[in-house]
Design brief:
Layout (H helix, E strand, L loop, with lengths): L3 H36 L1 H13 L1 H4 L9 H21 L1
Length: about 90
């Protein structure tokens, strides 16, 4: 029988691994979007407009399609890249 401390340690290890994977995905997403913004600014703009027109994005997740925090994170990533592109332009 596994005691509580062992269970907690196992869960902490799983959480740490999940955070590392999430950070890798975040970095990859930001890199790909930045590359698209630099190479194909019109395509990046179209993608941003398409995403912001979707219900989950407009309602900040209120429709249940996407948690509010995730919609906000997407909005921030697109905004950061868009701002960087404008400064560069």
């Amino acid at each position: 029988m596994i005691d509580d401390q062992t269970r907690i340690l196992a869960l902490e290890a799983r959480l740490d691994e999940a955070q590392k994977i999430l950070m890798a995905h975040d970095l990859l997403l930001r890199g790909l979007l930045a590359h698209l913004a630099v190479r194909e600014p019109e395509a990046f703009g179209q993608l941003a407009r398409t995403l912001t027109a979707m219900k989950f994005f407009r309602d900040g997740g209120a429709g249940g399609e996407l948690p509010r925090e995730v919609a906000q994170e997407i909005r921030e990533i697109l905004g950061e890249i868009g701002s960087s592109l404008e400064r560069r332009g």
